[in-house]
Amino acid sequence: MQTTKTSNMRALSTLILLGVVWGTGYSIARFAMLNGVAPLGYSFWQSLGPALVLGIMAAYRKKLPSLNKQHLPYYFICGLTGIVIPNTTMYFAAPHLPASILAMIVNTVPIVAYPLALLARLETFNWQRMAGIALALAALMLIILPKASLPSSDMTPWVLITLITPLSFAICSIYIARFQPTDLDSITLSVGMLALSSTLLLPLVIGTHSFYLFHFPLTMPDGVVILEILLSSLGYLLFFRLIRTAGPVYYSLVDTIVVLTGLCWGYLIFDERLNQWTSLAVYLILVALLLVTRQQRTAAIMHEQPTTG
To answer: How much is the pTM?
Structure first.
């Protein structure tokens, strides 16, 4: 009994820490963009940095990605849809949107993924989840339609552009669920994705003169970029630990913590204050996340229950 309680507390602590780490990234990205770091340059370092950190771990465990014809296309698609497209889109939007709104939109991935999973026949139809999707759409309308919702009407196109990020993340998750090779573990997959995404971003960064060069001594933007590299790498490690020790039941709750963390940092760092429309939108998104992921948690728990009789 005591061991179970301790394990649950560790899983909960890991979940909260992971949500805080990921939720902090939106304010860090906004701060970096507002202080002269180009979105493509920032995206490149947020691919290469964690790739090096996790690559060292994978090398130590002798689980570096293999460069064969079977795995390379897989790494390419995952790197493109799971890192290059969503991260770059998010970083381009970061200086134009409040960090709290950015965090809320990006973390609708479970809501976007469910209808895609239905189309891919990976999920079954459920009215509760569809109600969550309806609430999420209502929340989006509350953000973009009322003129008094966003601080500026110029932000509305960026809200729509930001939706590319959860859509791309969702496509990546569906692709992984369908096509992940059985001989790849999580760290190997992540290193492969990050390495391929860095390779894809490098010519874009050079071609657009967006490469971010660190200074010596380090400046504040340099420190922010390095901080996010460390936090991102820590996030991957916490993610692996959470999935290994607690499984997807706990992980499905992380988006809610990320949204709340993004709201807190947006308020503390940028003095972002929600009005009546955005406050209601946040509430609807949180309820939508709980509705969409609750059935997933219930199904996972039932699956793990030992059968009797």
So the answer is: 0.90
